[in-house]
């Protein structure tokens, strides 16, 4: 999950809360979430990524109502930007004093859902880079597990961390410790995908896991941002990755698939690849027919249509840059989890005006508009002067975001 998985915004750093009971007490005092009932592992395996503090976070409860989704992968826990071995959201918002993410988790659990937390991601400083050893790395992650009463955690090991063998040893060692100290904890490990399955650093990470005797619920690859073009290239990479798992751990094909996962990117990727709904369906069919353990994607923040739908050929962190209805891609995760999502609504492209009136699309309160986008509203054509959402044309005066271009 590459450049668009930007670091979260948040508060300044705070003091490190200790592990164990003291972390639990501190966490509760800082706004810990209410008790969670564990979902089946299949739901944690299907949880799409959600940035709860950045990239125009969507309402998780609304997604649950619209799709039947029950699980979310919250991103990302990192080391503090200023240094240290304490968990933060995006390097800036200390887990120890967090209430914002805790509130999101509470809203999800109130509707019968749950969350996993993802550690790492693309860029930023990871705990494995800052902490002195596996034990201290695990203690830092344990604070998040204890505070949020987590039943699942994801280790997203990619650039620049996975090029640092010491940091990877800390992360893999921490994952093993957490697995041992939190019985039943669902653990996924996510890394970069290549046409070969995964690259040199990904293979070294697998070798480190083998050396430490660590086996998570799955190792997942991200087959995007690497010259992929649609589902065929992705399923080929998954097949090749299966062979790597077999040769590394001595597993047969079925066992390797049972420990393999897919983590995709919906819509337009950072490098301009496109993965549309039909591609997701093809990979989903591959994953289920081969008995794979995980099917997820980056991200729910992007699982809605841009305006215009193709976003003028650019990639966004808040929409997919392909034609879609809101939460189309989340429904593939629901299907993977074993549930039947509600019927797909028509695409959210604002309806065009009737013949004889405006030739541009009608303004929509839910759509995101950027500089240069045109809409019709109240018989006039309007031009967006900058980014906007839910600002009605004609209501903000001449200094507002919308420039009146006259009657249609």
Write a structural description.
This protein is of the alpha/beta class and 408 residues long. The chain contains twelve helices and 17 strands. It has helices spanning 21-29, 41-46, 60-67, 100-110, 127-130, 134-148, 165-181, 200-212, 231-249, 253-258, 277-289, 330-337, and strands at residues 49-50, 71-78, 88-89, 93-94, 114-120, 152-156, 186-192, 218-222, 260-265, 267-268, 274-275, 294-298, 368-369, 374-377, 380-384, 388-389, 402-407. The strands form four sheets. Strands 1, 2, 3, 4, 5, 6, 7, 8, 9 and 12 form a ten-stranded mixed sheet that branches. Strands 14-15-17 form a three-stranded antiparallel sheet, with no helix packed on it. A two-stranded antiparallel ribbon has the order 10-11. Helix 6 packs across helix 7 (165-181), helix 7 (165-181) crosses helix 8 (200-212) and helix 8 (200-212) runs parallel beside helix 9 (231-249). The chain is globular, with a radius of gyration of 22 Å.
Structural classification: alpha/beta
Global morphology: globular
Strand content: 15-25%
Instruction: Output the helix-strand order.
Output: HHEHEEEHEHHEHEHEHHEEEHEHEEEEE
* End-to-end gap: 43 Å
Instruction: Output the radius of gyration.
Output: 22 Å
Outline the low-pLDDT stretches. 6-31, 348-357
Work out the oligomeric state of the chains in this entry: single chain
List keywords for this structure.
alpha/beta; 10-stranded mixed beta sheet; 17 strands; globular
Concise structural overview:
With 408 residues, the chain is α/β, with parallel strands linked by helices. It is 32% helix and 18% strand.
